[in-house]
Amino acid sequence: MSLVTPGIEGVPMPHRLSHAAPVLAGQACAAHPPATYPSSAQPAVASARRYMLLSRPSRRLRVAILDDHPAVAVGLSAYLGEHGDFEVALTETNAVALAHQLKRHPCDAAVIDFFMPAQSWDGVDFIRRLRRPCPDMAVITISAGKAHETEYAAFRAGANGFLPKGAPLSLLAELIRTTVVSRRAFFSARTGQLRATIPDPPDSRLTNAEREILRQIAQGFSVTQISGRLLRSKKTVSTHKRRAMKKLGLADDLALALYLSENFEQNVYG
After folding, report:
1. What is the CATH number of domain 208-263?
2. Which top-level group of life is the source organism from (predicted)?
3. What's the pTM?
4. 48 conformational bin, left if phi > 0, alpha if psi -120 to 50, beta if neither
5. CA dihedral for 240, 197, 122, 142, sign (positive or negative)
6. Alpha-carbon span 228 to 207, nearest angstrom
7. Residue 165: its pLDDT value, please?
8. Which residues contact 54 (CB under 8 A, 6 or more apart)?
9. Residue 111, phi then psi, degrees to nearest 5
10. What is the pLDDT of residues 181-211, one digit of tens each?
11. What is residue 262's predicted lDDT score, i.e. its pLDDT?
12. Cβ distance 113 to 159 under 8 Å?
């Protein structure tokens, strides 16, 4: 698979690496020649470009990292720590612990693993809980799951950016810098290049509530567990599930399971 030159569409990269960029999945990516960019750019990207060209942060950006795999969390921390404009202030493997830490040690950006099946909060829950105490912090989600579904769920939850775990780490560095500058936009590197975008829903037939219930079911949670996680009654959860199945033409739970395996991130992903 060929990788597009890392960078924001329409924005020169101020921190280009001269060596091959490591990737989140532990692969290696060959260095790329200078990229060419379209003359037109979206407003959010243009704003980021002006900032990057005309000014530099007066201090290092404080970054928090959350991943339930310690090796990934430590690896991300080590990589970002090599950059002079980042200070990795917090590195956690537990969402609740990071939420408490952020109250005492605010950060400019948080890089969080979107799917953490063994924890009480998943990516959507964590992002929503962060928004009240940390409204100005840029939130970037990373995931090894189905990119389209995860990207849209992160966007709906209030994240500022999305990066697949197979992407070059140089894209993560650029994504942090960009989202800190342009927090009103959502940036994605799902295509191999950073772009300001509004993700399309995976299935427009479903309401957001129905899609959220199916996402929880795909992760292995029962109706009772979903009720507790989302603070909704079991009757409401069951109603959303039933309506979603009717819209999708799914006759039983087996058909639902097959649909979820093809369209939603499953609990086998890290």
Report:
1. 1.10.10.10
2. Bacteria
3. 0.61
4. alpha
5. positive
6. 20
7. 86
8. none
9. -105, 115
10. 988 889 998 877 888 988 877 677 788 888 8
11. 77
12. no
Give residue-wise pLDDT tens across range 75-114. 999 999 999 899 999 999 999 899 999 999 999 999 999 8
How much is the mean pLDDT over the chain? 77
Q: Which residue has the tokens 């999305």?
A: 162
**Structure confidence at residue 44 as a pLDDT band (50, 70, 90):** low
Measured in degrees and rounded to the nearest 5, phi and psi for residue 22 equal: -70, 160
Token digits for 86? 């980042």
The two tokens of residue 99 are: 């939420």
The boundaries of every CATH 1.10.10.10 domain in the chain are 208-263
- pLDDT at site 46: 57
Superfamily of the domain at 41-196: Response regulator (3.40.50.2300)
| Residue 119: alpha-carbon gap to chain centroid | 17
Q: Where in the chain is the domain with CATH 3.40.50.2300?
A: 41-196
Question: Among 67-71, 106-110, 166-170, which range has the highest average pLDDT?
Answer: 106-110
pLDDT at 58: 61
The pLDDT value given to residue 29: 34
Across 135-165, b (16+ Cβ under 10 Å) vs e yields eebbbbbbbbbbbebbbbbbbbbebbbbbbb
Q: Would strands 195-196 and 187-188 be described as parallel, antiparallel, or unpaired?
A: antiparallel
Q: Which of 138, 151, 116 is nearest to 229 (CA)?
A: 116
Judge contact between 198 and 188, C-beta under 8 A. no
76-82, long-range: CB < 8 A, 24+ apart: 76/24, 76/111, 76/169, 76/172, 79/22, 79/169, 79/172, 79/173, 80/172, 80/173, 80/176
